[in-house]
Amino acid sequence: MSRPPYFGAKADNRRLRRIIAEDVDWSLHVVPCLSKLCLQSIVRSFEEKPIFEELPPLDRVFVQERLPTSLPLHVTANSVSDGVFWKRCCEQRWDICDPADYGHSWKRMFFERHVENIIELFIPDETEPRAVLEMVPLCKNYVKRLDISQLLPPIKEPEKKEEEEYGPELAGPSMDHFDFNILLKKLTKLEELHLVYRVKQCGMNFERTMFEMTDRDCESLAEALVSCKTLKLLRLHQSNIEDKKCRRLVRNLLDHPSLTELDLSHNVIGDKGAAAIGRLLARNKLETLNMCDNNIRGPGAEAIARALSVNSSLLSLNLRLNRVGDGGGRAIGEALLNNRTLLHLHLGANLVTGPSAVALSKVLVENGTLKSINLSCNNLGVDGGRALQEAMSHNTSVTECDIRLTQIDEQSVSFINKAVWTNQRPSKQQQQQQTANPSV
């Protein structure tokens, strides 16, 4: 009896087959390489037997492209190197991902954001500290910066009507936030810490205490900063920090071995806190200090000026939006006559007037180090403008001078701007030469 003829795709496929197998779709053209079968097996069994570093580079890419992003972090953290796997993890979890902000490392981005999310959602007295501590062995080699945009307070129980007239008084939950003392000393590569003591999107549940650090918060953070020896930048802003807390923090930063940038902007630090900052400048090796938008007045600015006169490391000082007045302005001007390190000075909106402009004009004549000065939003007046004009006729170093909204007459403004433009030309020509001849 003759066999029935084959028709269509199945007939064509059958002609290609060398072996008549049970699978009618089997074809020699789709048989995978043995090496690929081995790699697929590694992917399937990765959770039980994580094999990665032993593989050749191309095989590592193959595995990273196929590993499930749902694998536990204790399996992948220290076994899968930076690459497409961590890129897939980031893009699956967050809408906006730019590794340029993380040293072009997808793995660093993932772990920094992951730790930030854990801390920002940590609820004191509710969340187990173990949830944070378990992450330390997995992330400590990859976390260099933490940007904490909120810190949640403990849950406040609703007030209940007293059922009995007499009874024991029960203490409610504290308003303390996450204790950084349990974490920072274990992050051995942390270089930058950005903190804001606030609650985002609190809506109708707004309370003033949600937007400030408590005394115990300050104590625990101060202790944590001492133990974090690798920290280079500390930004602690918009947290209602006043003199007492500022002095407590500074006390623990006096002998910090690596801190070079301190940002305490947008707080309520006054003259006593500024005096503590002065002691820090005289003792530490800070390069950048930002005290913008605080309550520093003349005495506080004078304390900073005294430290500035002996400091040899600070490159940038920002006192914008304070109230240093002419007492502070003149003191800073006199200090800069002895300082040969500071490059950038910002005294905008500080209630300084003509006498401060006269003191700073002497700096522009005698100090050849200062590169930029901002005196905007101060009432310097005609006399102050003429003093700055005369000084700029002898200055060759200042390439930025902001004198907007200072009541200086147009003639002085025009002359100062022209002098600044003249000072900018050599640096611009040098940049052009470096661009044309990168080897120079």
Q: What does this 3D model show about the protein?
A:
The longest helix has 27 residues, at 410-436. Strand 3, helix 10 (243-253) and strand 4 (261-263) form a beta-alpha-beta unit. By secondary structure, the chain is of the alpha/beta class. It is 41% helix and 7% strand.
Using brief descriptors, characterize the structure shown.
elongated; alpha/beta; 440 residues; nine-stranded parallel beta sheet; 9 strands
Mean pLDDT across residues: 89
| Poorly predicted ranges | 161-173
Radius of gyration: 32 Å
> What is the percent of helical residues?
40-55%
Question: What's the total number of strands?
Answer: 9
Strand content: 5-15%
Q: Based on Cα principal axes, name the global outline.
A: elongated
- Sketch the topology as an H/E string, one letter per element: HHHHHHHHEEHEHEHEHEHEHEHEH
Q: What is the spatial order of strands in the main beta sheet?
A: 1-2-3-4-5-6-7-8-9
Distance between the termini: 90 Å
Number of helices: 16
Structural class: alpha/beta
The main β sheet shows up as: 9 strands, parallel
